Structures are given as structure tokens and as C-alpha cells.
Fold each of these.
Amino acid sequence: MNASPKTEWPKSLWHASATPFDDVSPLTTSISSEVCIIGAGFTGLSTALHLAEAGVGSVVIDMHQPGWGCSGRNGGQVNPCWKVLPETFDKKFSEAQKSSMIKVASAACDLLFDLVDFYKIDCRAIRPGYILGVVGSSGKRFIEEWTKQWRVPETAIKILNREQMRSTVGTDGYDLGMLDRRGGSVQPLSYARGLARVCLSKGVSLYGDTPATGISKEVDQWRVETPGGVIHCKKLVLANNGYTDDIWPGLKENIVPVGSLISATKPLPDKLAEEILPGRHAVSDTAGMPVYYRLDERNRMVFGGRGTWTGQLGNLDTGFLRQAAMNLYPQLKNIEWEFDWGGYVAMTTHHRPLLLSLDQNAWAGLGYNGRGVAMSTMMGKQLSMALQGKPTGLPVEQSRGIPFHRFNKAGIAARMISGRLKDKITRRL
Ligand SMILES: Cc1cc2nc3c(=O)[nH]c(=O)nc-3n(C[C@H](O)[C@H](O)[C@H](O)COP(=O)(O)OP(=O)(O)OC[C@H]3O[C@@H](n4cnc5c(N)ncnc54)[C@H](O)[C@@H]3O)c2cc1C
């Protein structure tokens, strides 16, 4: 049997500072399990954990190690709800379904922080809130509509005027802001490893450096091929998000993977950190090329945004990101940047995540549109309910693919160019 190559990690701040975790071994034999989950990011691990809580056993495999994908590379921002307004939800959904989607998305941050508390996951979780910064009257309208349509409780929200934004976010770059107290941040790779540790402690079988290379049906069960062995299972979950490959025909056509880059500074002096983000909030904005940022526990500025114009990660050219950071914070001018990395975000055309039924006893959860830290944890819970035949809060949809999928790269490039032009005109870049 062939061995898989050992995982190479991106040179990220998160990999350099994560809670240590011993590599899990590759699968080297043939096994059987009630459920096989392909992908050990937040989606796959949360599915396994919720199944284990319900007494259902599972095997989780990853072509690399737990947290290697987006889950170990993201900004670590735990954001409430989705970026999109509920009024854009497809007309095919009933009012009851829309209400249920709002409820599920709204509960995602609580689910994550409750898991971290309950299982004592060591991932530097903090919950000071998430801030959205906006400019102009369209930004103001967006905040009003977003809070109304997502039915955010008044106690969760504080609107920050320009002066309050300056004192909370340390920049003059925004006219208005929305502090949503439900949000916060985690060290994402430590969170993924923490979920993996809980799964192992509950008897989940976890294999690393184990790519699924083929899936086929055998009467009433699935057969998952890997280089070192075969997994026979009754139920199957694909949890590969922006790294979805061809193992399930047509699945990757439901999303467009788009590169997102992050740059992190060396630790800032305490006085500067206090000036910039005294409350340690997680921040993002709605500029032409939106950016997201926060400080880590050692005062490093962790600053992210979309990657190259083609949607690919390229050679991690983060020059434009650093420029955007310095335009917002001229105080960063003489600060050294230490880490650059990136990963593939899975976008959907309607900007909402998908819980898909692929076949009888086969599901997938994907398409978080860059907002998956809390939501993929919630998707895992939803998938575990679908697997147990229980009603889900998210609608279960069919895998249909995005029409004209192969033209999407051109669409992404056009959006990138127009976003950057907008930021140049407004002197943001
Ligand atoms: C740079 C960046 C910044 C982001 N910032 C934020 C943020 O601040 N807040 C937020 O909410 N969201 C953010 N996101 C999005 C968030 O990280 C994702 O939505 C989330 O991690 C998705 O988790 P997942 O488990 O579905 O996918 P992943 O973590 O990508 O896991 C998929 C796994 O599947 C495995 N895999 C693929 N194919 C196979 C196969 N054939 N066999 C076996 N294994 C396979 C991969 O190795 C991978 O480990 C960001 C994403 C990126 C890339």
C-alpha cells in the first residue's frame, strides 16, 4: 500500500504559535464505521464531536493534518450571522425556513464559545465583540438593515459614531461602526486542534495524511478509498470547503475557491496596541476590497483581505494589504511585518452556506463565504442532526452547481479590479 507524503504547513503565525498537537497517523488498514467524515477542519471535527455526543461513532480522515485547511489559516474572527442580508435569501424558502436560518446563524457564536468553555479548549478565546466599520450613508443603511433583518437583540448591539470608532478602533477611517457583542476571536489552529483532541477523547478515529481518492457505493454502504486502506461506512460526510476536489462528481461546482491573504506584524509596543485596539475587538469593513483585522495576545496586528486579482494565492504578495493597514493606521509605518500566509475561502453565488444532500446517506457542508469560524462549527451540528435523521435548522439542498461555473474566475477578477479602483478613488489604497 502506498504511503501519503507528510503534511507541509503554511508558515503562518497560527502554526508558529498553536497549542502543540501530535500528528495523527495515516490509515494503513481496512476499517468499518457507522460514519466516515472526509476533512478534519471545523466542519468535519464539529460533525464528529456532535455525533459522539449523541453516541454515534465516526472516522475522520484528512489528506493533511487536522486544521491544515482554512480552519488553521483564517483570521480567527468569530463573527455573528452571515455577511449577506436575509432579504436576499432565495424565494423558494418559506418564511418558517428563513426564520430558522436566521436563528441557526445567530446561534453560531454561542455554540462555539460554549464548546470552548465546556471542553476547556485552550485556544486563547476572547469575546469582547466584533466591530463592522462603514463609510457614508450606504454604510449606515447597511448596518440598519443588517441588524433589523437578522433580528439582532438590542442588548447585543452598540452603534458607534465617528468619535467612538476613533477611540475604539484607533482610526479615522470609518464614519460609523456596529459593535456586535456576540463576536470575538480564537487562535484558529489551536481551536481546530482542541476540537480534534475532544474528538479523540470521545473515541472518534482520526487519520491524517490520508486523502480520500475515490468513493463508491456497495449495496447499502459506502466505500472510501485511501492510499493505505479502505473505509466501509453507512453514512458519509464531505467537509472540504475551499479545498473540495473531484472525489464527488460536481460537488466543487457549488462553490468558487477564492484566495484570501493575511499578514501579521511583530508584537506592537503596548502603548501602540492600546491606541489601536484597546478593547481587542475583531474588526472588518465594507470597503471595495474589504479587510479584517485584530490583535493577537502578543499584540501582533493580524491583517487580512482578498488575494490576487485572479482569485489565486499566487506567491503571497501582501504588499497591498500592508498598504491598506498603514492607510488606516499610519502608526504602523515603522513596524516590521513577520508572517504572510493565505488560504482558499469557498464562495457561493448567493453568499450563504450550503447543507447538501448528495445521495441517500451522503451529505456535504460548505460555502461559508469567509465567515466560517462560528458557522462551520454550527454546520457540524446541523450535519450531525441530518445524519441522525433529525430535522435541521438549515434547509437541506441538492448539489446543483453554479451556472457557468468555469467563467467565475473572470467574474472574480472583475470584482477585484473594481473594488481596488473604488479604494484608490476613496484613497483607501
Ligand atoms: C485566509 C482566510 C481568512 C479567514 N478568516 C476568517 C475569519 O476571520 N472568520 C471567519 O468566520 N471565517 C474566516 N475564514 C473562513 C473559515 O476559515 C472557513 O470557513 C472554515 O475554516 C471552513 O472550515 P472547513 O472545515 O469547512 O474547511 P477546511 O478547514 O478548509 O477543511 C477542509 C479539509 O478537507 C481536507 N480535504 C480536502 N480534500 C480532501 C480529500 N480528498 N481527502 C481528505 N481530506 C481532504 C483538507 O486537507 C482540509 O483540511 C477565513 C478563511 C481564510 C482562507
Note: Residues 89 and 98 are 7 Å apart (CA to CA).
Amino acid sequence: MAGPPALLLLFLTFSLFTFLTESQLAYDYYAKSCPRFEEIIQETVTNKQITSPTTAAGTLRVFFHDCMLNGCDASVLLSSTAFNSAERDADINLSLPGDAFDLVTRAKAALELACPNTVSCSDILALATRDLVSMVGGPYYKVLLGRTDYRISKSSNVEGNLPRPTMDFSKIIQIFTSRGFTLQEMVALSGAHTIGFSHCKEFKSFLYNDTHYNQRFAQALQHACENYPKDQTLSVFNDIMTPNVFDNKYFQNLPKGLGLLESDHNLYDDPRTRPFVEMYANDQNKFFQDFAKAMEKLSVYGIKTGRRGEIRRRCDAVN
Ligand code: HEM
């Protein structure tokens, strides 16, 4: 077992690593090299969200899936090649919506015109996510910039690193805590399900034998998913009360049996997470504060800076 000096050394090395990585980041990282960066993201995001209102939720989920696997390094944006099956083609990622990828492509195109070879795809995704969350009513938070993009993206690395609604709840918790997120942060982040939707395949099998659903809600869901699997595109809003608004209704729904996914129900049923669900259901400000802080933390999770990554010219292909 490591003794106190070894532990201290380990701690100092870890702190130094964190310091060195984060010290290369800055809120105004592009102030000189690409002064219109934030404005271009804002413009692209606004246009896209107005024409395709599902973009906000889609982008938030893409960002979450990128960060959880090896850090926020835009590896989820890479397309597969003849030699490599990329993260994006892992089955859990097949439902990531095209609108989110399209948004990044548009922003990148505009940025390459304004300041070629300067802005990373991972910074674009991080800032676009922040802008979209606040556009649909969620909290605004600061995003450190200066990430570089990673060229390794393998579908075979995905399984077990992203939560699935069918997973044992302790396994879901472990996915977050093993990355340094507390239970409270996990619950706050899960509040992302206040927007967006889920395909019937993600919850249909629970509808008939899960007692956590409100009965009428379960019947309505059975009806909505009647034609699945014939029509695999069938989907339902995650938050049936205010599906397009980022608020704390998702947490208010859970005690009433109005959660959609098995994992949503578990957040309320498990005594380890229930107190946080109750707290956020009662206090939207607290939810916003905690969600913002947890997103700031997620946004720098496992990121690469300097020569550990690259600035990709196209976000879907390595240079
Ligand atoms: C706690 C464990 C979680 C599980 C098991 C889970 C699972 C899922 C599933 C199955 C869907 C439906 C996808 C589809 O059918 O297209 C979904 C949607 C979504 N998830 Fe999660 N998720 C979790 C946590 C999170 C977190 C932490 C975030 C973000 C910080 C997030 C953001 C979203 C968003 C925004 C959507 C809607 C996507 C859209 O409308 O396109 N999820 N999630």
C-alpha cells in the first residue's frame, strides 16, 4: 500500500498536471487570434436553433457523449473511415442527431473563413452547447477555451463509458464518480433531460412492468409507441410538461411518476440521489447554479491542450 510520502507525491503530480493543463486555457483565449469567435458561434447557433429547434438538446447530448469518453476533445465528431470505426458509430451514439453535427460544421466553416486553422472543434462544441443551453432558458456559465482536438476515436471504446437507461443504477453512478463527479453533480447534470426527447426503444420495455410510472402516463406512452418497432423514429419528449424549456420541471415530474427513462425513475427511487432530486424540484435557482458549475467542470474534463491535440480543419475528419 502507498505510504503518506508516496500519496503526497501522487497528489502533487496530479495537481501539477491539472494546473498545467488548465493554465493553458483562458476565457479570452481567442481574443487576439480570432476576435469574432464568440460572435460567430452566437450567430450560427441562433440561426440553427431557430430553423431546427431540436438542435439545443441534440448538441447538449453530443457534448456529454464526447466529454465522457476520454474528455471533451471532439472525438465524437469524427466520421468512420475504411480503416476505423469511430465513436459516432457505436450503437449508443447512432441516435445522436444530425442537426448537432451540422451546427458544428457550419460554425467551423464560418470560423475557417474568419481565422483559418485557429479554432478547435472541441472549443466550438463547448461554446455552442453553452449558448444553446442559455438560449432555451437555462443558466449561462463561463467556458474556458484553448482545447485541442484528438484524432483517436474508436467505437469499440464506447461501451461501458456512457450511461444507458437499462444499466444497474450503481453502474451509472460509478460512471460519473469514477470521473470525479459527485452524486449531486450527477443529478444536476441529469437535469439536462428537461429538454429533448427519447426514442421508444429506450423505454418501451419498461412500460408494462415498471410500477414507477404514473398509470395514465404509461398508457399514453404505450399509445405513442404503438407503431414501434415498425417505425423506429417514434420518440417522446423527456419532459412532458415543458419539453422545450430548460427549467426544473424534469425534477418535479419524477416524484409524480412522469419520468421517461428507467434511469430517470431511479434518480428519485434511489435514496442516494433522491435528496438532490427533491432539492432541485423545490428550487430552480439552486438547480441552475449547480448545473452551471457541473457543466463548467464537465467542459474541462479530460481535455487536451497544446501539442497533445491538433486544430482540425474539418471537424469530421483528421487533418
Ligand atoms: C444519468 C444517466 C443518463 C442516461 C442513462 C441517459 C440516457 C439518455 C437516453 C437513452 C436518451 C434518449 C436518446 C434518444 O433516444 O435519442 C437521452 C437523451 C438526452 N440526454 Fe441523456 N442520459 C443520461 C444523462 C445525461 C446527461 C448528464 C446529459 C447532459 C449533461 C444528458 C443529455 C441528454 C439530452 C439533452 C437528451 C435529449 C437529446 C435529443 O433530444 O436529441 N443526458 N439520454
Note: The radius of gyration is 20 Å.
